[in-house]
Amino acid sequence: MRSRLTVVLIALLAGTFLHVLGAEAQQTTLVVTGYGGRWSEVMKKALVEPFEKKHNVKVEVVTGISTEWVAKLMASGPDNPPFDVLFGNEPAFPIPRERGFFDKRNDTLAPNIKNLYPKALIGETSLAMFWGRIGLAYRTDSGIKKPTSWKDFWDEAYAGKRSTYAGVAAIKKAQPKLVDFSGTMEKQLEQKEAVLAVMHDAGTNDLKNRGIPVEWVAPVEGTPILDQVVQVTRGSKNKELAWKLIDAYLSPEVQTAFATELFWSPTNKTVKLPADVAKKVIGPGDVDKLVLFDWAQVAKQRPLWTEKWNREMR
Question: Which residues pair with 215 in a beta bridge?
Answer without folding.
Answer: 138
